[in-house]
Amino acid sequence: MSPVHVYEVRPRSDKRGFELISDALPFGRLWYGEPGAITNAIGYAKFFSCSHHAVIRVYDEAGNVIETHEHAGDFKER
Asked: Given strand 53-59, what is the order of strands in its sheet?
């Protein structure tokens, strides 16, 4: 069984976009500041975990989970 990658999308404390945070990322976090930042962060997490099961949680400024996405890790090597 593959490990589960857990990602968090959180608003930055300086209110300049969002951060994608995970131990699965090479540098621990990525910054998204453009329009559509949450959608782009979720898309990157799904792409980065193409061969692993992933859980992506989106938080609001108060620290509450407002969305949860699961990715099955459907990449199959031939």
From this structure: 29-32, 18-21, 4-11, 53-59, 65-71
Indicate the Cα dihedral angle 47, 62, 32, 14, nearest 10°: -160
d(CA 3, CA 10): 23
* pLDDT, tens digit, 9 for 90 and up, residues 26-47: 888 999 998 999 999 999 998 8
Burial of 77 (0-12, 13-18, 19+ CB in 10 A): exposed
What gap in Å lies between CA 71 and CA 4, rounded to an integer? 10
pTM: 0.85
> Encoding tokens for residue 65?
């989970």
DSSP state, 64?
Answer: -
Query: Which letter does DSSP use for residue 58 in this model?
Result: E
Distance CA 45, CA 3 (A): 14
